[in-house]
Amino acid sequence: MFKVDQIRKDFPILSRQVNGKPLVYFDNAATSQTPQQVIDVIVDYYSNYNANIHRGVHALSQEATDVYEQARHKIQAHFNAKHAHEIIFTSGTTHGINLVANGFSSILKKGDEIIVSALEHHSNIVPWQMLCKRTGATLKVIPMNQAGELEMDVFNELLNQNTKLVFVNHISNALGTINSIEYIIEKAHSVGAAVLVDGAQSCPHIKPDVQDLDVDFYVASAHKMCGPTGVGMLYGKEEWLNKLPPYQGGGEMIAEVTFEKTTYAALPHKFEAGTPNICGGIAFGAAIDYMNAIGFDTIATYEHELLEYATEKLSSIDGLKIYGTSKHKTSVISFNLEGIHPYDVGTILDKLGIAVRTGHHCAQPIMDYFKIPGTVRASFAFYNTKVEIDALVEGVIKAKMMLS
Amino acid sequence: MTIEAIQNEIIDEFSMFEDWEERYQYMIDLGKDLPLIDDQYKTDDNIIKGCQSKVWVHAEMNDNKVAFTADSDAIITKGIIAILIRVFSNQHPKDIIEANTDFIDKIGLKEHLSPTRANGLVSMIKQLKMYAIAYQTQLN
């Protein structure tokens, strides 16, 4: 039985006050909060076995290496990757995307095509633009409809023998739409294109099975799933990771160095140059343990309940418009009050202790599509409550009163 | 009136407000009353970077004093601009350059000075001072 009151006790930050009001944290799509269980792991690392990994013969180094590699195995198990060395520790989703984009710069040639979706985060567009510039490949975009869903007919038309790579987020950060990546992967593979899925927004809500999806690359960030900032993972199929050249040079990623030639280390170290975020990786593993202990089915069911409740309550406010109305979406509500700038609404909500995101959510093309400067985005996590949603609704009504 | 005298006047006004709501309502009302910038100056060149809401500022010099007009698409930002214009407009460039901005803290708007604040109050002040510096060079 899921008891949210019990869960909330795991998160010390949820009991603090902001501007004299109890904190209502609805900016989970930007970063999630950290449970005590993960904080304890971080403290334990620095208190008891902080050491550089993979190179020391001493006990601390071996201990740190073991726990770090255990974390890799936890991540492997969570995403159901075939091999642990298919999990590359990164500094986060953006790093993973850049790593793949850089790798493809030696594979792509003029005339090749890359397809991205109109629902992308900036970080998922810029590297591909740079890649196209470097290689002479062309960037194609899958458009979206009014509900914020990708137009699959157009995707099918864009797809052809020249398509080498398809990039799509599993879930849109700005609108919460869940994209049909199963379909996209199957279609892309039918023309021999690889698929990279940005899982930054999906991993806090669902448990992707990379083998079942048959996805080529999948990236995620720890800090969106109860872990620390500055660490994430890239899953890549072994054959793809072997094909891609290393991203950064440095320690850890080499097997042998002479002045004539460097032999690269085997996976995963080939892509892990330098001292990694050791504590972060370990805490990432702990965060995955924490979320799995609650259970992703339980999380999804409860968050869906929050989403439905909030959608109904917010929709009853006169002049409030919700952007992203797909039936398949996660617990994200992007909205505006008619004639009122999202920034103003966010400012008033902040004074009431309610944390939401305002602006274009690093997804300017989506805002351009709706012809708006941005939205107010409330994103819910499993530790949020209906009482907090009531506070948000009251806050929005108050903001509307003050601002109109 | 000197910049300092205007700032003190604003501090006095704000001291009458009992809570954040009254302060913000006042700023919102100021925003609504702000005389708009002439449309010809609402250009991309006049947009202040670093603001989540759009802010346009235009400056011109009359009788050795800098006059500012401005606009924003967000009303609270407009209220903040209204306060800044009241303080800095129609002042000698040298006085604008030398003016300190502690009054913002004193009227309870310190949170808008944080670098995470996307309304870019800091950028706005910087921009007003940049104009003053430019006009001061003309006078020298």
Automatic annotation (TrEMBL), chain A:
Family: Belongs to the class-V pyridoxal-phosphate-dependent aminotransferase family. Csd subfamily.
Molecular-function GO terms, alphabetical: cysteine desulfurase activity; pyridoxal phosphate binding
Cofactor: pyridoxal 5'-phosphate
PROSITE patterns, A to Z: AA_TRANSFER_CLASS_5 (PS00595)
Record's catalysed reaction(s): (sulfur carrier)-H + L-cysteine = (sulfur carrier)-SH + L-alanine
EC number: 2.8.1.7
Enzyme class: transferase
Origin: domain of life: Bacteria
Described function: Catalyzes the removal of elemental sulfur and selenium atoms from L-cysteine, L-cystine, L-selenocysteine, and L-selenocystine to produce L-alanine.
Domain Aminotransferase class V: 24-392
Name of the protein: Cysteine desulfurase
UniProt keyword list: Pyridoxal phosphate, Transferase
One GO term (biological process): cysteine metabolic process
Organism annotation: Neotamlana nanhaiensis
Automatic annotation (TrEMBL), chain B:
Gene3D superfamilies, A to Z: 3.90.1010.10
Residue stretches in coiled coil: none
Secretion signal, residue range per the UniProt entry: none
SUPFAM superfamilies (alphabetical): SufE/NifU
Pfam families, sorted: SufE (PF02657)
Domain Fe-S metabolism associated: 12-130
Protein family: Belongs to the SufE family.
UniProt name for this protein: Fe-S metabolism protein SufE
Higher taxonomy: Bacteria, Pseudomonadati, Bacteroidota, Flavobacteriia, Flavobacteriales
